[in-house]
Design goal:
The complex is a heterodimer of chains A (286) and B (334). Chain A has one domain. Helix content of chain A is 75%, strand content 4%. Chain A contains eleven helices and four strands, in the order H-H-H-H-E-E-E-H-H-H-H-E-H-H-H. Chain A has a two-stranded antiparallel sheet. In chain A, strands 2-3 form a two-stranded antiparallel sheet. Chain B is globular, with a radius of gyration of 20 Å. By secondary structure, chain B is mostly helical. Chain B has a domain of 214 residues. Classes of the chains: A mainly alpha (286), B mainly alpha (334). Chain B: This is Branched-chain amino acid ABC transporter permease. Chain B: One of its GO terms (cellular component) is plasma membrane.
Chain lengths: 286, 334
């Protein structure tokens, strides 16, 4: 397997992980106009809870389940107590979600300590397989598969189910949805918890891929997700997918060839999109 | 009418005189150093208040400007070994801050306000990484140690008075700004952007100008910060520095200018106190957790912070209906 193909596959794997964070952020913003600055912290909590359960039970599957449930619970509490009372007041919402980010991150340091924690791959997903007679880690393939599954799952959810239709309608015009007799607030809560659950799920899946966890994990990944949704178009599901793929691949190539400027390239790409098409590559001008 | 109590010059003069007397009452070098850092952080937080409290935009990368000031003093003074270039360094920082503010503001403020929060955060991270990776210029992760500053600043009492004068001048300057027609327009943008736009104001230009002024003031505070610390490292670009400004402004009182000064004092001393206790009670090492909770409680229940809440209570006692309705209206800001 050539180096380019290897980097490309690694890029897709990274893109899958970013996508898991970005999709929730993007949907939540699109639907309720809230940019959740604590989203990355939920990702980190998912990873830590998942690791704890995985270490305790030895089952990675249980770890994924526990991490996801933790994310859903955190997201639900967050929406109910801190975001809901402030709909329509963006400044307070931004300030509050940042405060929650601080508390969640400090909470991780309190419970698990500020140092690195190792996160081993489950035995079944360790090792390599040969792709075009070159070895490639199984876990990366697993990550790509998970990303694809979530992509298809969320796509079907949004296009084929009643809730999906309500959510898409809500992104267009929440007041009209409310006027049609649908409890849009409940949809808000569900989407918030769902997005948080996806981020936490992403955290557990990402853990073994990073190899270790640190409390500031959330912030770094959240930044990538922000860049992704700016590039793809905020509140735009295909945009989040395309942006994640783009940033994942570009970052992987840069990390190999010019590691020092990888972040700068992402920011530069974001700046170019903002100048050229501020609503995002796939965004619609309103 | 507005803020008779706290913007009253007499009151201000009283506080200033009291602060001037401190070095004569106590010669504790520790206390003076603490107060100098309070003054510098106060200026930094006031500049943040111009954005958050008066223009109504939330920056999560305010430390970019603080860090620019800190690094340009650190780099210029240590590379040239000419301590007297300090004023040139601060001038460079101010110009640099204005340019960066223009670029960031132009990229993000044109779109949606929430983009501004995201993009300032991304740029802060970018500057953090630059300061870490470009080690031949910035000293990398170790930063620049032993910055030689003018001997003048080595005398704590003299530095104390310089910092106090800096705070006083910056307070008066920013008060002048927010009470000018320009500042009134900023507050109008905060209250109702569409209406200001439809009145024919170029909202983007006003926001950009506000960001530039705020950035320049923060850069000056950052420059003097390096003079105080005598070293500079990547911490000045860290998220925690932006959180400092947020905490101090929110705790003290958003949209009051004087509030961030109070907030800077409260947070700096509380932080010092909690750190000194943390040797006994290790859980206090997570002091940011307590500040985070305090911050959330204030945003949710006392959106005007310490100073704003006291001021409202005071006014309410006076029984002025106008004041009560005024405060109610302001409540909708945050």
């Amino acid at each position: 397997m050539s180096l380019t193909l290897n980097l490309l596959l690694n890029g897709v794997a990274l893109g899958s992980l970013i996508f898991l964070i970005a999709v929730g952020l993007s949907l939540i913003f699109g639907l309720m106009g809230v940019l959740n600055f604590a989203h990355g912290a939920v990702f980190a909590w998912g990873a830590y809870v998942g690791l704890a359960v995985y270490n305790a039970t030895g089952s990675f599957l249980l770890g994924i389940l526990a991490g996801t449930v933790a994310g859903i619970v955190i997201g639900w509490i967050m929406e109910r107590l801190f975001v809901r009372p402030f709909y329509g007041n963006h400044v307070a919402q931004i300030l509050l979600t940042l405060g929650l980010m601080i508390i969640l991150t400090e909470g991780i340091k309190m419970v698990w300590g500020p140092n690195l924690l190792g996160f081993d791959k489950p035995a079944a997903l360790t090792g390599v397989v040969d792709i075009l007679s070159d070895p490639f880690p199984i876990y990366r393939i697993f990550t790509i598969g998970i990303g694809l599954l979530v992509l298809i799952g969320v796509h079907l959810l949004l296009t084929r189910t009643r809730y999906g239709i309500i959510i898409r309608a809500g992104v267009q015009d929440p007041e009209m949805v409310q006027a049609l007799g649908i409890n849009v607030r409940r949809v808000f809560s569900l989407v918030f918890a769902f997005g948080a659950g996806l981020a936490a799920f992403g955290g557990v899946v990402a853990g073994p891929s990073f190899g270790s966890l640190n409390p500031d994990l959330g912030m770094a990944n959240q930044l990538n997700a922000f860049i992704v949704i700016v590039i793809g178009g905020i509140g735009n599901f295909p945009g989040a997918a395309l942006g994640s793929l783009l940033i994942g691949i570009v970052q992987t190539f840069m990390a190999y060839y010019l590691p020092d400027v990888a972040m700068a390239i992402s920011v530069a790409m974001m700046a170019i999109v903002l100048i050229w098409k501020p609503e995002g590559i796939l965004g619609v001008r309103r | 009418m507005r803020a008779k109590l706290f913007n009253n010059n007499l009151w201000l003069g009283f506080v200033l005189v009291a602060l001037c007397l401190v070095p004569f009452v106590s010669s504790s070098k520790f206390l003076l150093t603490m107060l100098i850092s309070v003054f510098l952080m106060a200026v930094y937080s006031m500049s943040y208040d111009l954005l958050l409290g008066y223009t109504g935009i939330v920056s999560f990368g305010h430390t970019i400007f603080f860090g620019l000031g800190a690094y340009s003093v650190g780099i210029l003074l240590s590379k040239t070994k000419q301590p007297n270039l300090i004023w040139a360094a601060i001038l460079i920082a101010v110009v640099g801050a204005a340019v960066i503010a223009l670029i960031i503001g132009f990229l993000s403020l044109r779109v949606k306000d929430v983009y501004f929060s995201m993009i300032t955060l991304a740029f802060a991270q970018l500057f953090f990484i630059i300061s870490e990776k470009w080690s031949s210029f910035t000293g990398g992760g170790d930063g620049i140690a032993y910055v030689r500053v003018p001997t003048f600043f080595n005398d704590r009492v003299k530095f104390y008075f310089i910092a106090l004068a800096f705070l006083a001048v910056m307070y008066l300057f920013l008060r002048r700004v927010v009470n000018s027609p320009f500042g009134r327009t900023l507050q109008a943008i905060r209250e109702n952007e569409q209406r200001v736009e439809s009145l024919g104001y170029n909202v983007l230009r006003y926001k950009l100008a506000s960001l530039m002024i705020s950035g320049c003031v923060a850069a000056m505070a950052g420059g003097l910060w390096t003079v105080l610390q005598k070293y500079v490292n990547t911490n000045v670009f860290a998220m925690d520095r932006t959180i400092d400004a947020l905490l101090m402004t929110i705790v003290g009182g958003v949209g009051t200018l004087f509030g961030p000064i109070v907030g800077a004092g409260v947070i700096t001393f509380a932080h010092e106190w909690l750190s000194s206790l943390s040797t006994q009670y290790p859980f206090l090492e997570r002091w940011l957790l307590f500040f985070g909770i305090l911050y959330i409680v204030i945003v949710m229940f006392f959106p005007k912070g310490i100073l704003g809440t006291i001021r409202d209570k005071w006014r309410y006692k006076g029984g002025s209906r106008h004041a009560a309705s005024d405060s109610k209206r302001r409540e909708s800001v945050l």
